[in-house]
Amino acid sequence: IRDAAWLPWVEDYDRFLVDGGGLSTHTRIYRRRYAGLFLAECFGNGPPHWPRIKSQDIWRFAERFGARVKPSSAKLMLSSLRSFLRFAHLRGLCGPVLALAVPRVANYGQSVRPTTLSEAQQRRLSRSFPANHPASLRDRAITLCLLELGLRASDVAQLRVEDFDRRHATLNVFSPKTADRRLLPLTRHLVDS
Prior knowledge:
The chain has 193 residues and is mostly helical. The protein is built from nine helices and three strands; from the N terminus they run ααααααααβββα.
């Protein structure tokens, strides 16, 4: 709605997303869209009167628009609304309660489920690295750390040669996520590689 009295608030929110969050154009488009839909639902084309907004208005909006879309889209819509209401709170327009009133959507029904490699696929992958080539030996060791120890890519990236103790068959892993070290037993394949 181009001539709505609340449009300057959406434009200010968009500037905030650029300056404060560095968000991409695509993300900003849907965040602006949902902020505008919410304000239009609450105030029509008129000026926003923030004290008038109650938690029930947020739930009514979520019910009305969220019921028409997939759970993933409803989740996106509501997280955008939560972001906008946090912005409004930062600007002193409303209290923090409004952002807290935005419902959360559980999206367990993803159509693509993560899969793991079968034993045969793991063996085939492990054998696919050419023998006696330094880069291939390194790549095979990285792959085995991921497959057999369940390490994260960031954990593997932190590994050094001195972290491997072949004599005791252990691996000293630093995890950037937890910022601590843990000692893991090496599998036979990793000791041999």
